[in-house]
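Lecture 7 notes. Example A: sequence first, then its structure tokens.
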Amino acid sequence: MKSQVQPKLIIHGGAGSSLHGKGGLESVRRSLHAIVEEVYAQLLQGVDASVAVVQGCQLLEDEPRFNAGTGSVLQSDGQIRMSASLMDSASGHFSGVINVSRVKNPINLAQVLQKSPDRVLSDYGAAELARELQLPSYNALTELRLQEWIQERQDNFKSTMAGVVAEPELLETSNAGRGTIGVVVLDAYGNLATGTSTGGKGFERIGRVSDSAMPAGNYATSHAAVSCTGIGEDIIDECLAPKIVIRVTDGMSLKEAMQKSFAEAHNNKRDFGAIALDATGAIAWGKTSQIILAAFHDGEKVGDTLELPDGTDVGCTL
């Protein structure tokens, strides 16, 4: 076992264009900070990185205002299909499920698949796994997401995606859907892990696959770990999470890797965000969108990215 190090943690609840109509800055902050505090307390008790990641993802999936688990957006046919993945530096394994329905916490299936020879399952395979595990059928639908879908149906689905955060005020201004949740952890033993979960972008074509169940949007090694949020197709086109991790592996600092990757993303007119940790305990976030709903624990206190000055695209703390 490695010598004890100071655990670190960063989580996100999506990225988008503003906090207007999203329950207010303080309510989003309370949700994120409470989850950070709960997960960090477990890290101080010595839980492994992947266990802490799963716990954090479960808490975010269970928070109806975020687009993952309960509160997931509806696809074009009015159904909820969720995707999630987990990667653990200790095992080196990536696992995930794509477009699964009727489960409460998709991240739990990704956790089970960590030890499977078949580690990424699509809709039918994920449903069969849920049956094998005897998971109870669960309806993730909320009234707000249903009303959001009804409004879009009346407008012939002109919006390309659903709202990033589900709040009553959102129903009048649903045009900023970058909804994903993610957790990145450095545990007391020096292991890194990351998990990402989403309900998709909303109103999408049936069968569309999110970056959240691909290494492009969720990747970790012993050097760094990254979870992404935003327009999934943009994240896939940039292969964002592995790009950042590989740059750290090749000798860049995490901050340098984030800055270079997001400068490229700006040039390519991408719309997304990412959170990251490296093996030294550096915490980082980046965005090309206006906001990223992220909160972190740096070993001393909880902080967040909810009130950044305009033009702040990448941040890093040790």
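Example B, a different protein, same format:
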Amino acid sequence: MAAMTLLTRRALTTAALAGTLTSGASFAAAKPRKPIVIAHRGASGLRPEHTQPAYDLAIDQGCDFIEPDLVPTKDGHLIARHENEIGGTTDVAGRSEFADRKATKTIDGQQVTGWFTEDFTLADIKTLRARERLPRLRPGNTKYDGQAQLLTFDEVVAIARAGSRRTGRTIGVYPEMKHPSYFAGIGLPVEDRLVTLLKKNDLDSATAPVFVQCFEVTPLKTIRARTKARLVLLTAGEGGPADLPNVTYSQLVSPSGLKEVALYADGLGPEKIQIIPQDADALLPATALVNDAHAAGLVVHPWTVRAENYFLPSSLRRGDAAAADYLAQPGEVAAVFKALYAAGVDGLFSDFPGLAVAARG
């Protein structure tokens, strides 16, 4: 564990409702004043990500939104997976009938080898079972391997609806369009498919319990003209959007850049270190990003707060530093939540939504 290599985002990286998610008017009235808690792929710190057990647990722990990353199948269905490469999150590698579908592809400039959703029909996908993506970091989650089917976006919406009825709270959905330029290039554009599903599920409204997020700019501009749902530009501490190779995320989150973002998005989803930086030892003072984004009229929902020592500065790590699983042990993550809340964020993503709700108070 001590030798674990850096995990990137790619490698890791209110009333009850009878039949649908709440309408725009009722959601606006019920919207909490407190920052929203977005369950990052569900309660993914405690169950394999993007599965019904992860989403149900997150809802029961008090989250406001559940997040599905969306990628298309060969026959055009949008399913909830962190990446289109599914060798690391399903049992496909052990399925002999799919052995010949292993491939190497270039996605957003990175060469990736494995099995890809665009080479499987939805019927194929439904024969697979989910497994924990980070077994060394979250070994407790591996006991759930092989138990859960992969989900379509419609099924995630249904889980949110059922959670709303069960808890008496409005549970929203927060889908991410993954690699939309790549998928457009192979004839499987995501934007129109997602717009169709938003309309089908009564989510095509600026006040519906939904945000659509993306790390790319052009797809957000495209979908802006086709849906009234709220849109969020995701950014990172390094790099830039795959569709704009000459633009950096640091440019996009400058005061002038944020004014441009506000022309096609309603919110900003920055990496949390863009708001609360940290070095090896401690959290650092908040940046001006939240204030700058608010000044541009954008809500701010940073990603992703995780509880394990691996993700925390040394001052917040807890447990026996000599233990083999030290980096997988939980640290004092409440300090991270509280620093982000104090910085004025409008919500945040976490793999541990129960802890985010508790820290929110």
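Note on Example B: The longest strand covers residues 103-107. The chain is about 25% helix and 10% strand.
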